[in-house]
Amino acid sequence: MKHLLNSAAVALILTGASAYANESVLTETAKPEQWAIQTGDYANQRYSELDQITRENVGDLRVAWTFSTGVLRGHEGGPLVIGDIMYVHTPFPNNIFALDLSDNGRILWRHTPQQDPEVIAVMCCDTVYRGVAYADGLIISHQADTTLVALDAMTGEVKWSVQTGDPAIGETNTATVMPVGDKVLVGVSGGEYGVRGRITAYNLSDGTEAWKAYSTGPDEEMLVNAETTMHLGEPIGADSSLNSWEGDQWKIGGGSTWGWFSYDPDLNLVYYGTGNPSTWNPSQRPGDNRWSMTIMARDADTGEAKWFYQKTPHDEWDYDGVNENILVDKEIDGEMRKLLVNFDRNGFAYTMDRESGELLVAEKFDPAVNWATEVDMDPESETYGRPMVVSEYSTAQNGEDTNTTGVCPAALGTKDQQPASYSPKTGLFYVPTNHVCMDYEPFRVAYTAGQPYVGATLSMYPAPDSHGGMGNFIAWDAVAGEIKWSLPEQFSVWSGALATAGDVVFYGTLEGFLKAVDAETGEELYSFKTPSGIIGNTMTYEHDGKQYIAVLSGVGGWAGIGLAAGLTNPNDGLGAVGGYAALSDYTELGGQLTVFELPD
Amino acid sequence: MKHLLNSAAVALILTGASAYANESVLTETAKPEQWAIQTGDYANQRYSELDQITRENVGDLRVAWTFSTGVLRGHEGGPLVIGDIMYVHTPFPNNIFALDLSDNGRILWRHTPQQDPEVIAVMCCDTVYRGVAYADGLIISHQADTTLVALDAMTGEVKWSVQTGDPAIGETNTATVMPVGDKVLVGVSGGEYGVRGRITAYNLSDGTEAWKAYSTGPDEEMLVNAETTMHLGEPIGADSSLNSWEGDQWKIGGGSTWGWFSYDPDLNLVYYGTGNPSTWNPSQRPGDNRWSMTIMARDADTGEAKWFYQKTPHDEWDYDGVNENILVDKEIDGEMRKLLVNFDRNGFAYTMDRESGELLVAEKFDPAVNWATEVDMDPESETYGRPMVVSEYSTAQNGEDTNTTGVCPAALGTKDQQPASYSPKTGLFYVPTNHVCMDYEPFRVAYTAGQPYVGATLSMYPAPDSHGGMGNFIAWDAVAGEIKWSLPEQFSVWSGALATAGDVVFYGTLEGFLKAVDAETGEELYSFKTPSGIIGNTMTYEHDGKQYIAVLSGVGGWAGIGLAAGLTNPNDGLGAVGGYAALSDYTELGGQLTVFELPD
Ligand SMILES: O=C(O)c1cc(C(=O)O)c2c(n1)C(=O)C(=O)c1cc(C(=O)O)[nH]c1-2
Ligand SMILES: O=C(O)c1cc(C(=O)O)c2c(n1)C(=O)C(=O)c1cc(C(=O)O)[nH]c1-2
Questions:
Q1: Nearest protein Cα to ligand 2, atom 12
Q2: I need a labelling partner for A157 at 20 to 30 A (CA). Which of A421, B347, B495, B532 fits?
Q3: How far, CA to CA in Å, does A205 sit from each of A20, A138, A186?
Q4: Among residues A264, A288, A318, A503, which one is catalytic?
Q5: DSSP character at residue B75
Q6: pLDDT tens digits for B201-225?
Q7: Domains identified in chain B, total number
Q8: Residue of B67, B529, B587 lying closest to A531 (CB–CB)
Q9: ipTM computed for the complex
Q10: What is the residue range of A245's domain?
Q11: A171 is a domain residue
């Protein structure tokens, strides 16, 4: 039965004829010469069938052309290519350029929204923006100030525009949107300002709201059904969120949704994660704080919750659970399974059945992880699916105003927003990771709307007793739950990976290097110093029969916040400034696109 | 006798043993693998002996590495290379980076001055900076706010710092300094704010003032000697400046000194030009307005004036006379002459004897030039050395509040700050030019210290009845006074040229292309789209035995002021915004270094 469904899904994707799915997205993402949504495809695999650039010739790569975005600070996400046009976005003020690939990157149109710069003050982790999406002839952009705008992809004309949140209470946006069916899904940032997380679906045709699903609160506002929404194989039960909070704390309890969406057109389910519970001081919010830190599977048409899995109940370390969920089909124990693979901030990589939400594998993807010994995998256990927390590293057990030291990973996790990629050819996941530990001292904090609601002082440093660097780029086997190879990096790898059919994997470094490595062995095959630190995601496209690789440079994001915001106090930038101080020896602010090609 | 002197000078340059010259500058600029001062050498030839990159292989050029400066807006000037270190500067706030060429451009030190951003309001033509100079182990920088600072070249430590002007009365700096002897020479900007131009020499050892020479005013303040300072072969006479102004207008009469310095170590003379008389409304300042618009030759030790030549007496078009004076030795009529070649804003290229100030050639270097028919070359004539002004294009004769139309060139001249280069191999000058005309309507304006003192409304457009573009890149024969070849460009060529012993000439375009052309024929051999419009000056260096080409991108300057300052009204930016409006279809603000190499 599963096999049959799976084949059907594949057929639907190939023909682009799914009754549920947005035909445009399926059609456009199926063309390997294009890159139509930020995640590459609905499955978030960030894999390309293009194979002109191979492990044999990638060493000859050279820069084809470049483009300055005219904006500094952290450049996350990457360009899209639809037909002959490349779409490039910037951090705040979220400018968009349409570049003519047939005419030396000439600017066909530019969209330069006027946004109140006050919003910058309520963005936790730099003015980043993970980019626009394409669907049905529209470029859809979700600005920092939570304006959602749909532009005519050919002319840049604004088709419709709608406000999705309120920056006055700390609601902002940094995430890309996901067009699914006849809707577009958007999240909200603000876990450090006590927002109440949710995702909202807007109708692609006119921007009217279709449905909204909160991360916390009453069942009906979460679109949860006590009987049919599942949690680790059991019905979730009534008031599952309300029961896990003290009083009304859930109303300012975070669970924001600033990560990535994936979508299975066959199951018609969307997947995404929720962020940290607010505040960072765990003593102020006893309970599991559901459904923060949770992978959510929802019906794309109605938003109804199919299943939830909370990775870090009662978070004590800011391990937001928003990282991308990569959808792959793989044999496990002789059976083909529809899988979802998630590399969580908390340092565990989860392999789940994406139809049922069954937990199959949960293993550390960095040996430095020490806050928990393991995830309880025994379905009969009281603590099934929960991490086994080590008391020494429990900031809740150690209590307010106590500095818990040596916790690994640091708050920015073993992996943060930087998306991994998956190669169906090697069957491996390629994961940009952080190798950073922290000291964490929670303190009592009062909530004021629109003001930081953090409640902890942090400092960060490279994982001790290791290679001295703050990152690794790893290859991961999601069935075995094992690292295949690991490349040490001086700084966290804060850029998204790309795997290609040429058996090459690309990623960028905070110093600014674009690197290409052998997909099998991890051997470095190419390295080029781009203008600024890379926190963007590498993509590839083909134009006039030639394959190109493109990436945005522009140091920033949480890891680069010291440079981006000009901070020097080690504890500033939510504790990231000190750990990454040496970055200023390597790079400066930027905002550039670099496009690579093979010589003719 | 002239022959003898000339050979002696060459010998002195080669041995670096001149009693007058700064040995460090002579030694460092004599090494072809380096680029020690902005002009390449004291002669301002912008020529390099490096010849690995040739007209045969330049087509294979590729990007070696890149660096983002972290600053947007117009990037003029270029990097220096001394030993293994490259020095990169930025526009306001005039940051400086020392990059390790032996370690992937790692940042050895950075200098990030804190300047009052108020100074930006009194910079006429973008926040540009034409770069730092090296001498005696010091990096010398002259900031926008007229702070002159000497840094230890190895550590970035501030050795001394001195204030050279007062931004409160519109005095700013955009020019590079010139180290000569045991001094460093600096100019001042502010012709559009009624400053009184001068150059000042500071002692390299401690920054104390050595001498100061005004462009206008009493003889003693100009360091002019009525008997020994010459003007076209005659003693200049007493009160030569005071006699040429009405009342005290000379005190707010401009003649600023924001261009380039050159130096002949044999003659021990420095050469530079003075800018427009203030205001732009000629009716407010009857007379020749001496010594605005003048090439000046001064003794490097004392500042004493040797000779002056005023190219545009009583300017009516803002044709600042500050362009670089290129020193070459050439045979004219069978005799070796020490020449000075100047491509003036007014559209005439002057070839002079640099020892005596004799005028040898004055010819139009753009056929579009129409404001004057010719320069009177008859030594017996009353108007010897003066341009023959065409009444139709005389904004003074047409008078206040009359729009004089169709004047060629526009105020930004046939060439502005963008320096030309000279190849001793071809004997040709390579000149980045503007091909722009204007309408000019003067109006009465009152002087208020620190406020714009312009008094004219301008609009600019491509030279009519020509190729439709706004620029040409030309090769010039300075003895014949003839264009050898001319390459049409869509926009003004606002970047400095570089000629090399590989018979290749490099220049950048406002769209962002770095171009390489054949030094003999002008044939385009290579073109690459850098991140942003190029107004920087291409340079070359050798490291570890390999030749590199480097250039700063970052659109701006007067031509790019619309993009740089976000102006859209066609008459804004002193009239430049309208003419260059189409630039926004090609490029965005930037600030990047791109370094090129041949494949191994
Ligand atoms: O809780 C939130 O709402 C929220 C938002 C964001 C964001 O919007 O970028 C980040 C985080 N949290 C966060 O915890 C985090 O590590 C982080 C890193 C980055 C980044 O782009 O580098 N953003 C964010
Ligand atoms: O009169 C002056 O003091 C003054 C200063 C400057 C400057 O400092 O850049 C320019 C000019 N004038 C000027 O006339 C001009 O065309 C110009 C162009 C540029 C440039 O860098 O693009 N600067 C200046």
A1: B191
A2: B532
A3: 16, 10, 15
A4: A318
A5: -
A6: 999 999 999 999 999 999 999 999 9
A7: 1
A8: B67
A9: 0.94
A10: 35-597
A11: yes
